[in-house]
């Protein structure tokens, strides 16, 4: 994520519009058409504004306890028609419940909870994570 860890700061990435624009540019540069956007934790700052503005450009959305879900209203989420797999570990007792509470307003969602996994559920339970992700991808059009 630009501006975090050892990555250089990116001036345009300081607002929701900037985050959305940045992700839009990345997807355009990669030539991606109707990708499935997987969004763990901090990447929610980029993914959620993009989903709300351009969800119709995505084949699917997989939020994994992303940050920033409380920044949007239930009504905003209800307008998104992107198929969504809300995925989290049951030991993530801080961010996951908040994300679920907000993201459950997405009309085309389903939920997968990984038993015994924490915030980085894909690291704690990689086989279960990949199975849930593959099952979701298989049902997409």
UniProtKB/TrEMBL annotation:
Keywords: Cytoplasm. Signal peptide: none annotated. Coiled coil: none annotated. InterPro entries: AB_hydrolase_fold, KANL3/Tex30_Abhydrolase. The keyword Ribonucleoprotein does not apply. Transmembrane segments: none annotated. GO terms for cellular component: cytoplasm. It is found in: Cytoplasm. Residues 8-126 form the KANL3/Tex30 alpha/beta hydrolase-like domain. This is ABHEA protein.
């Amino acid at each position: 994520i630009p501006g975090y860890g050892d990555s250089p700061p990116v001036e345009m990435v300081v607002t929701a519009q900037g985050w959305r624009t940045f992700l839009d540019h990345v997807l355009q540069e990669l030539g991606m058409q109707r990708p499935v956007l997987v969004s763990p934790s901090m990447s929610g700052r980029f993914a959620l504004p993009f989903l709300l503005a351009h969800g119709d450009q995505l084949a699917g959305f997989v939020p994994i306890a992303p940050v920033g879900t409380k920044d949007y209203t239930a009504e905003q989420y209800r307008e998104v028609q992107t198929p969504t797999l809300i995925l989290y570990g049951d030991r993530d007792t801080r961010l996951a419940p908040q994300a679920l509470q907000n993201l459950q307003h997405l009309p085309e969602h389903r939920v997968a909870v990984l038993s015994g996994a924490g915030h980085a559920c894909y690291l704690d339970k990689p086989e279960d994570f990949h199975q849930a992700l593959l099952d979701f991808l298989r049902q997409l059009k």
